[in-house]
Fold this sequence. Notes:
Blueprint: H1 2-32, H2 42-48, H3 54-63, E1 79-82, H4 85-88, H5 98-106, E2 110-112, H6 122-129, E3 141-146, H7 150-153, E4 158-160, E5 163-166, E6 170-173, E7 176-179, H8 191-207, H9 210-231, E8 236-241, H10 249-252, H11 256-261, E9 265-268, H12 269-273, H13 292-305
Parallel strand pairs: 1-2, 1-3, 3-8, 8-9
Antiparallel strand pairs: 4-5, 6-7
Amino acid sequence: MKIKIIVLNFTLIIWLFLIFDFCLFNSIENKYSHDSNNIFHWNLYIKASKIKQFDDTYKKLKSQNYFRNTIQNTNKPPILILGCSFGYGYLLEENQAFTYKLATKAERSVYNQSISSLGVQYFPYILEKFEINKEVKDPEYIIFVFIENHINRLYRYFSTDNNAYLDIRYKETPQGLKEIKHKYYIFEHSAIVRYLQNKYAEYKYNHNSYDKNFDFMKLHFLKAQQIAKEKFPNSKIVILKYEENPDSWYYNTERWNELEKQGFIIIGSYELTGKHLYENEYRIKNDVHPNEKAWDLLVPKLVKKLNL
């Protein structure tokens, strides 16, 4: 009799956990969903429980021609761009986005490795893990489009709360920055567990000082520079600081001078254009991402600044 009660209670706990897990997933999904007629996302819930590795995602995007490369018939050395949705051109047509505008204005080929939702940690990772040096021959500049939101992404376990896209993470060791090899946990199939992991990452970011977060970010840029020197020895790295928010400590800090002393070229969008690109005039309507007007303003000045 006791065994039956234990089994019954255990079964009940499992069912309650799954119900709550499903409810949490739906609550998160409905924040992003545009389908107001469908509030119960059963298929997405099952699909989202599968852990997705970045390497597989990258290869899939590559096979789907996701990256917005603009190839020009010229002898000028190419340019390589990395970043997130800002660098990619989220919600913009290809001919409205950064890559196309830069390639056209500079009259040279521009290769883009930006993927929406990525952070600074993917800068060294993509350079190291994928043989893009076989495709992009001796670029003059490697441009990383930086936004403030990249820094909190350094701590994330999963890139989105409503899907199991496993984030790349590094840790600081006495030997330098080392990739954290993910250990598979069956409980990470649960939306609750993934949500709590990301909340813990958010807590770490928010409770660190600005300087500590900057220190951690800086290590990632230095690691990317080390890898770039091996694969692209003649290239110069540009960090294009895109002013995403007003009064941002991370955008305005003089600590960027430390990276300049290490050989990086640091360019701020406001210093370049004299305009605050976080203003609605330069954003897609009802969204935070740059519109075409922002790139029309920024790109010619960047071309002039870098003597492209």
